């Protein structure tokens, strides 16, 4: 049978669509194969993702040991979501070893900024090298307890001179550590909506602490990982969504969005549909102008893109 030109184009177009769907389905550590309904504005930034490479040894005592998750794997998610730029955060797995993050920055060809984990003993020359590589923040992770804030004030002062931010994964300890964070003179970023507990939510001390931080004009909040505290669960995470909506309403100019890919705290069968998670922003921030602030304008300024 001879195909007409129109039939040939229709057939090849259908095959291309099938191939594209197959490519979308092959995004590691993410469910689903559809693109998001939300179209991110050009220049959008995923402000929270991690890379893992088993060739780099985990820090002694590390409890979170995910499978390898490469920049090439993540690029597939970016293609699906329509977001090219990213902030690579050194995870707790590696302690103060930032080699995996730095390798990602190098190979991102300018599409990424980094958040490092450093010790009190880091030299000014080493900080300068990190800055040159694209690092724009340091992270403290309180999943190991409030002692993880050792050196907070001195390190915050030093990196503040470089224009960096201090990012804190507070876990349930935000009310306890908020006074120290409020006393810092520089920029502060709070991971994962401050882990506001459910069902207390807007009535919790953690939410009140977030509002106080936002009111300093020096704090930014990552609208990320809604699954961490939700009691309702996927796909809408309505309980955490009420927290996100309230935060956006209070200070849209201080909100950031992050995928938390490859979702290291979740088992393989619990990984979310990242397109659906991005689409939650349409519920939390219905206006396109606000979405553009969160996805592009706020992080572009904060991370010096």
TrEMBL record:
<dbReference type="Pfam" id="PF10518">
    <property type="entry name" value="TAT_signal"/>
</dbReference>
<dbReference type="Pfam" id="PF04909">
    <property type="entry name" value="Amidohydro_2"/>
</dbReference>
<keyword id="KW-0732">Signal</keyword>
<dbReference type="InterPro" id="IPR006680">
    <property type="entry name" value="Amidohydro-rel"/>
</dbReference>
<dbReference type="InterPro" id="IPR032466">
    <property type="entry name" value="Metal_Hydrolase"/>
</dbReference>
<dbReference type="GO" id="GO:0016787">
    <property type="term" value="F:hydrolase activity"/>
</dbReference>
<keyword id="KW-0378">Hydrolase</keyword>
<dbReference type="InterPro" id="IPR019546">
    <property type="entry name" value="TAT_signal_bac_arc"/>
</dbReference>
<feature type="signal peptide">
    <location>
        <begin position="1"/>
        <end position="25"/>
    </location>
</feature>
<protein>
    <submittedName>
        <fullName>2-pyrone-4,6-dicarboxylate hydrolase</fullName>
    </submittedName>
</protein>
<feature type="domain" description="Amidohydrolase-related">
    <location>
        <begin position="45"/>
        <end position="305"/>
    </location>
</feature>
<dbReference type="InterPro" id="IPR006311">
    <property type="entry name" value="TAT_signal"/>
</dbReference>
<dbReference type="InterPro" id="IPR052358">
    <property type="entry name" value="Aro_Compnd_Degr_Hydrolases"/>
</dbReference>
